[in-house]
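Section: Multi-chain targets

For targets with more than one molecule, the full set of components is provided together so that the structure can be written out for the assembly as a whole rather than chain by chain. Components appear in the order listed by the source. The example entry contains two components.
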Amino acid sequence: MATKILTEHINVPGIETFDVYRKQGGYTAVEKALKTMTPEEVVEEVKKSGVRGRGGAGFPMGMKWSFLAKPEGVPRYLVCNADESEPGTFKDHYLMKTIPHLLIEGMIISSYALGANKSFIYVRGELMYVIHILEKAIEEAKAKGFLGKNILGTGYDLELVVQPGGGAYICGEETALLESLEGKRGNPRNKPPFPAVKGLYQSPTVVNNVESIATTSWIVNHGGEAYAAIGIGRSTGTKLISASGHINKPGVYEIELGVPVEDFIYADEWCGGIRPGHKLKAVVAGGSSVPILPANLILNLANGEKRLMSYESLSDGGFQTGTMLGSGGFIVMDETTCIVRNTWNFARFYHHESCGQCSPCREGTGWMEKVLHRIEHGHGHRQDIDLLVDVAKKIEGNTICPLGDAAAWPVASAIRHFRDEFEWHITNPQEATQPGAVYRGEMALV
Amino acid sequence: MEDNKPQLFKVTVDGIEVEVEPGTTILQAARKIGPEVAPPAMCYYQPLKGSGGKCRACLVRVAAGSAKDPRPMPKLVASCITPVQDGMVVENTTSQQVIDARNGVVEFLLINHPLDCPVCDQAGECDLQNFAFDHGKATTRYEEDRRTFEKHDIGPYIQLHMTRCILCYRCVYTADQITNKRVHGVLGRGDAAEIGTYIEKAIDNDFSGNVIDVCPVGALTDKTYRFKNRVWFTKPVDAHRDCPTCSGKVTLWYRGEEVIRVTARKNEWNEVTEFICNTCRFDTKKTSDWVIEGPTKVSRSSVISANKYRADTIKPDFGKRLAAATYKPIDDKRDTSQLDIQQLPPERFAKLPSANEN
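Its structure, encoded as tokens over all components, is:
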């Protein structure tokens, strides 16, 4: 049985209430951290654990914490990024609605470690019912003395605020999130200064993903080294994967990092294989913004070894033959999926969600969407494919925030790996625009 | 007291070294060297705090981060907001990567721009025009419909042409920092974002006219000057008057004996040096209102200076290179002897320089 860190007690009835959660060993980490450890010791444990940011970038969390500037007389803030809006990712939503106290407990420990006395959970606006669940959980924790003034008699004060966002994808970018939290238009900020120096209200701020923060209670309870022992290499611990698409058992799975991708897709413990009678065509491994990979490349590395579910293995081969773990939005597509239509759909999303601040992203995302729309609807030209590659290249890396990259990668990778399909759409418009028409040419299906 | 002197940073831009104070941005350091190496800026505006970083026109490559850490930066950086480090080596137009990125930015800015320069009052002093001339291509790959907006009236003095806007946010910063109340802002998101007042309303403020001067394109123009003349037919003259609300230092634009426009004075980077009030700008248009100082030193980026767009001044072979890029000899092996077509001698093409040649 694989190790479960976040979802261990998730099936216990009534786990969303304080009493049940407490009975399952909840909030012991808060007691341990606040009563027996100094904030520096907590940071040290998190560093030792090697846990990497679960929001998508995979930056080591302990390192992020240690970058936090600590000037005298300036408040520090912890902001939990619960604006999960990456298409294909729904793990934070699941975690917060089923076991809200895990996040609250993590927030208390993390805030204590960072010396923050006011912390925010920025939840995506569409998830209003989750916000109510969180607020109820905060009330319960407050009533039991785990939040508010003088927590457990240790003299540490913490106020937790749940803030609904307006539902913009861009507000999941940390600086746009901070702008939005301050009540402004959610435009990403220019960096530097980084939030660790000047974040929320110009004060040092750490922004962490829900899943990252939720792991801290286990790390405090069991120690950083125990956490680092799980997983593989620099990908330590477990990761929630939101599996969706043409698989038998879609859902949120907690896996130990390092599970072979093949096992994850086909084993009964997880996705349970591709739906009957169909074959695997492509996988988007980490949420819509990471490069799409065809079946042969997602299961095996370019050198023939098995690809594993880990930060390193998934990004092996760079963008030529690799992808990224990202936020863990694992979208599986069988041979009935039209890659052109899928790419157009992603491009449409990024076009809609671009904040419009910097020119390459504002204009480029719209351009890509329009060209893809044309190809999908049978009006493409041969040069459109190279045009798309070029536009994607000119957006990538030239924008303020990673949304430009996120918009460019799916398009560039789809053309890199499925160029035939784009060409088929352009050269056979009548056939390609039939309802349900899919390219049936030569490709590796598994 | 030598210790109190700030340590100057040595920065190299396109092979030219310059010493600047710590905290200076790459763009400012390059401007210190001169206009030849200064990156273009469409959104950065030195007098406005917080501006910059949006248009990506000023992207440069940092070939060496600093003397201590000489690694190159992984991505191109926006020079207007990136502070220099001691020993930094910056590549502006000497890097092909930068040239390509700027080509891309021009292309992006122009795909939804109406290109109505022939009827635009900004033509001739337009930053986008200059930028496109320096870094753009003469052709477009964009086939789709251009973006349009509903027209909004923002008062008797300022004309808003949203289709021309490149969303530099300069007018937003101006209203924030110079006027006491901002009533306009950016509404909407992505390429549907537009400048406007939330509820249709006139921008009414003593200093509102300055948004016209800061606008890099023809999105905000002077209604009192609308369609009156072309910039290159007018003659700028520095003048001042005793104004109770502002410095009163302006540039008068003459057509013959008539003052047809009043603007704030701009420096060589097209940036306003002192903002002026609406009374000076819109209501005092008689020579007798002003004390004339003399002809304005014309900025380098204006068409009326030194024939900016004359092909032989800046890009001697621009026309030829364009021809070479557009007309390529066709490798046609078919038998055309029966078709009464006169074959062009191959030497005609050999004379054209290659399109890739710089």
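The radius of gyration of chain B is 23 Å.
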